Batch of 3 targets.
Target 1
Amino acid sequence: MVDYNSVYTLEGVTRTKITGEEKTQLEAKRKAVADNSANKKLELIKEFRLEKLKETDWYSNSDVTMPDNIKNFRKKMRDIPQDFDSSKYDELLNRDSNGNLTHSIWSKP
Amino acid sequence: MSYIGVPPVSGDFVVLDAITTSATASYTLQRNSGNFVPESANHMLVSLNGSIQKPNSSFTVSGSTITFSEALTSSDSIDFILVLGNVNAVGVATTVSDSAITKAKTNFVSSGTGYTGTGLDIKGNGSANGRLGLLCSAGSHGVAIESPDHSAGQSYTMKLPDNQIAADKFLKVKSISGSGNTAIGQLEFASAGGTYEKLLSGSASSSVNHDFQNFMDTSKYRMYMALFTDVVSAGTNERLDLQFIADTSVQNGSHYWGSVLGQRSSNTQYTNGYESETQGKGGIGLVMNSANAGNYLFNIINSPNQQDFGNNVFGTNWGYNSSYGDYAFANFTIGYNHSANNTGIRIVESGNNATTFDYEIYGILK
């Protein structure tokens, strides 16, 4: 893959190929990003999980009895990291054409 | 007795070479040994044997040949032949044929400075201002340069720009000499005035690092506005990040602190705070593909006299994020906790993927 740098000055624009040590460093940065991909996905999953938990937090009020299906739903949310390894993250993050998460675990009872 | 009437101050008055008579009526007229063609016989004073001869009666002229009404002899004497030239041709303009005076015949020499030393004046007529017309090639249309009204009392001089002409530039008074209504202004082709001065703009070709160098001038600009639109990345749900550049050296130390606060279309907030990172984060990640390009606005302050966070950014980005399935925007701040004489910025995608975009960078004048 050929990569370029562009330099813009008041005098004009120059574009040069990235080679040598700079190319090596770029590939290393990209590898680090790729290696961290699973962590970033897990962060997103936890973010979505937190949103779902917040939606059902009101069941925890002292004057409300939390139904069992909500208890189960919240437990499944908390157990996502142990129930799904990184090979399942893309399934968990998949969305339909309307931008909705498609995995059944996100379906609130 | 002095001359009676208006003296013919203009004209070509020539005494021709002397002619030696012989037994013939015709002689060649010469001036300085070269044949001479008078305008007509009426333009000539010919004295023969002490008597002035009547034109077209006592003599006629054809080309450079004068012919007397009868043959002379060697004992006759042509005392002189004075040719008056075409005395009216220049002295009385009404007799000059239209278009008769060509540019080669003019010589308008200026002297001194200001309007009083001009080589050519286009005068008003007492009611209309002086105007210089410039006609189209057919002469059927034209434009004019007109003097200010008399009541304005202006006698300034505009010196045309002393720098190279270029597209998108405006005429600006660069400097003046003198003062008041007789000042002399030196013009230049300058960038548009006002608060915002466009410094860089164009469409960026696909590149990993986009280095905008040496556009910062703290003597002229308070801050800079960098706008990146139609941003397309080879990555997905990444964002454009910023690093400062000092001269050509990218400032990639752990000097960037910042915070991001955004809102997603699912009515959910997005936040991200960080300290001591190697680049400033330009908001929320965006899908940034051809169908859903990203947009970024960086407002950049470069205050080299400040030590900590003297260089900082406030900005906004907006677009679609496919991880969230949301359209989103985020405001962000980037503080550069370091002292450097920064002169430019590097724009790099957070995943180090190649990006393309349209860019415009403005300097906001002090």
Note: The mean pLDDT of chain B is 90.
Target 2
Amino acid sequence: MAAQLKPGQGPLDYGSRTWLKVLFAAIFFVLYAPIITLVAFSFNTDKRGVVWRGFTLDNYTKAWNNASLIEALTNSLVIAVIATVIATVLGALTALLMWRFRFPFKGAYEGFMALPIVIPEICMGVALLLFFVSSGMMGLFVALPWPLNLGNIIFAHVTFCFPFVAVVVRSRLVGFNRQLEEASKDLGASEWQTFWSIIVPFMKPGLIAGALLAFTLSLDDFVITFFTSGPETVTFPVKVYSLVRRGVSPEINAASTVLIVITVVATVLAMKLQAPPKADKG
Amino acid sequence: MENWKQNPRVFWTLGIPPSLWLLAFFIIPLGFLFVMSFSDKAMVDGQVSITGYDYLTGFTNYIRAFDSLYLGIMWKSVWISALATALCLLTAYPIAFGICFAKDKWKPLLLLLVVLPFWINLLIRTYALIAVFRTQGYLNKILGWVGLGPYEMLYNNFAVVFGLVYVYMPFMVLPLYATIERLDKSYLEASLDLGGSQFQTFMRVTVPLTMPGIISGIILVFIPCLGSFLTPDLLGGANALMIGNVIERQFKAANDWPFGSALSFLLMYATFGALALRYLFTLRSKGVDV
């Protein structure tokens, strides 16, 4: 029996079974076809967007000249940059704390830090809305000039981003050789010097990966922003939402394509940066 | 790992900023929401006030949540999420299985292909589905070529279930991939050698041994489905409301924040229940893990 088997036809060679390949192709087709059509039709000349009529960049120019769309995109980028900086610092502090110290109720503290990751986004959104409105922060921020009026959205974004950064940075720190730290201290370096010249350089790939993750999470967030933004402060996803509710248009396709490119580039970068620790362990 | 008492200054420097942040912008807001869920709108001169509240008046909002209308929506949210989770499992299992048995050089690329859509904005992916399914959409166009349709495919439960499967599938593939990859393949060989058919081997060896991954995947998909707002809002419209949409209405159009707060807490309790189940399963599977 075994002698008759061609290579790739053993009982466990599921990877080369035709039915599995067909299924794979089908599932990937369903997964990607809508996104690819979305991108392709952003270059379509047809207004209604169902039939391909020819290549154009008009939709991009139109999106670019749409002042409210550009304003929303600028807001999103400003929020994402500021939230990323704060979230990376807070996330790194959390990761260092969990990595370095033993302390009472550590398990409970860890669970508490993971809460923003697990609770439904909508609950967090309405809780922050209620908090901002009842504490008067909403009224305060709305009255401030740009970009300070984005403050409440930034606070909200930092809150759901930094626990993710903490997870990424902590997984990087696990690979740290503690003898390096001891050696540095033995050689007379202070706590602060050891931190800056030994630990931070080691953490750097984790910090960058965490920051990129925070950046994409912030840029992509719709639900929490939808509840915490004031009437004047529209972010890109919130703007796209209001456009989508009115119908399908090639202009939205163009705007979406830009956002897809930004997030995919950030993600691929983050993945590339997270890969090295595996390689230098071996 | 050192005891915090050995270096309290560093301990507090690291611990205080994130803890304070989480306290101020997460725990306290949830506290506000909790108080609000037991409150009622204030009556001013015999009229319901728009912004005033009587705090901590009782359980009226929770009692109202068990009204048959809302119970119906909660039940519907549960079954839509359960159905979407089941379909995710059915599609994700062959994918995870196939990636594990693919050639090593293809594995990273295949995994990336599964995860990549997850990084594309949820709103944009949902919009892409609208363009496919709407009455003048691509699918109806294609069906039109063979003389079928057009069908109304949006704004019903089917569209919501499809949207949820489409959006949350990667969450299912990753834990499944992790457990199947760790599975000792010699068990499968043993089963096949001993005369088990491929189907028997799959049902009686592979599935039980990968149960921890299956359960993690189920929980990871079920929780965001249950709390989803955007997918049922855009794909389901008024015909397929889920609990998230009702919460959104209470806070926006209906302006009944106390009731919305109570519904939010019920949703959170359901989420914590699902997480507790997962924890129980991991405890149990640790005992029999191979």
Note: The CA atoms of residues 44 and 260 of chain B lie 21 Å apart.
Target 3
Amino acid sequence: MLKFVSKVSNLWARFEILLLASILLTMVVLAVLQILLRNLFDSSLFWIDPFNRILVLWIAILGAMVATREKAHIAVDVLKHYLTGTSLVLISKCIEVFAGFICAAMSYHSFRFVYYEYLDGMKTFSDLPAWPFELIMPFGFLIMALRFFYSAAFSQQGEG
Amino acid sequence: MKSLFTIVLLLAAIIGAPLFTIILGGAGLGFWISEIDLMVLPIELYRLTENTLLMALPLFTFAGYLLSESKTADRLVALSEAAFGWLPGGMVLISLLACAFFTMLTGGSGVTIVALGALLMPALKQSGYTDKFSLGLVTTSGSLGLLLPPALPLIIYGIVAQQMDIANVDIQDLFIAGFLPALAMILALWVFGLWNQRHQDIPLIPFNFKVVLKEVRNSVWELGIPFIVLGGLLSGWLVISDIAAITALYVLIIEVFVYKDISFKKLPKIAAESMKMVGGILLILGVALAFTNLLVDMEVPAKVFDLIKSNIDSRWAFLLCLNIGLLMLGAILDIFAALIIIVPLILPVAIEYGIDPIHLGIIFVANMQIGYFTPPVGMNLFIASYRFKRSIAELYSATIPMMFVLLAVVMLITYWPEMVLVFVR
């Protein structure tokens, strides 16, 4: 069972990295295309700017998901430089449980937000519905929560 | 229940939980106490999509990571060696300039020490500098260049200030104001190097125009980067996010197709690595938006101001306290996180004391820059200790003299606003 979970999570991690890279490249290409259109052809594609701004949010959350997986979040970790052994492991587990709960709560409220936006039929650029673009928030935080809990339960390393 | 949660939150902050979870928890608690639906949290986070400027962060960082994964550092050092090797203390200047160039694109996240350290340490020692000096110089230089365009901390400062509707904070102005202070820091460390190593026998490399020309030809594509950034900035044709996009695409093309230092297969990994850092910062920025609004609703900045006003009566005393506070903060907190959390509190107070917001931005970043290698916990000390396999105590003694040199420059920056603002106001 554990083996299966780790296999799924590895596959998912690769997908995450590919998604992140393609979003980043899309953003670069679209932004430069927009500059060229504006300066050389005196025209522009209206949807590029709002779309790229949404991609920033996707990058933020996907990047944070990768950071969660690799335990590379920004933290005030003064204490950890002076701890070793059991106490370090224990502290790390406490941190992961706490972070997991926060992410789970954020995921829940994000789901509510997206659901209300869906009910209200909120629109984003080019008259597209807004809610699919917002889905990264609930799902991203859900996965971060799962990763924190998984690591708290099974990880042997003393890193937070 | 609410007080229990407050205690849990404080404990989590002390034991070092990820910063975004603490801010989220704090904002959540505050809204909960004010009886506001917690759906406000994702709504505030979604406001990240309102600011075009934010695109600059992932794009510049991606460009910086691409450069650090390719052989840019070798070419850069070879070129500056040919160009400046004839100067006394040439190798010191080379290290300083190379580090500054790297840090300005990567934001001083330790990438500079990792990417350039292995190259500069042996080069410095080979030129005749002592081991201790070389170690100190490389570690200190790891955060040099944070004030040079397209300095990411200055962009963040500008974004935070603009979000608070503070007038007169233009990112372009911040970049221009950062230039002289950055130059002063580089020169001060160079002069210190000359003096500190005066008893060492350091042979000069004779200037050879042909060699310089050859090295320029080698790195000509990478030399285009500062031209894109500065040209775009000073011409006024392009906004910061445009410059970032062009820089990222340009670096991508030259490193993958011209120099062929980076294979296509490695790209996703580099992208993920750089976005891991940016994602963390952006997420903190996003959740801090909620937190800042809460603070303003609770009139915290006004209370902070009253508290400070009743204890500190002059502008100079305020600046001194600011210096000390920021140095301590810089040692324990990541620069981006500190900007996002502290600037909303300090900026209104500083304006009341008659401090120019641009000047404050420069003071802020300059102090935090020193915090990177302030004992006992400056982040770059640990990175360098890991990278060069030295004890942390060795790094303390190697960097402390240089810390005082830069501290003197920071004092100059803080108490001589005219120098900082000369090209701006």
Note: The helical segments of chain A are 2-40, 48-69, 85-120, 131-134, 136-154.
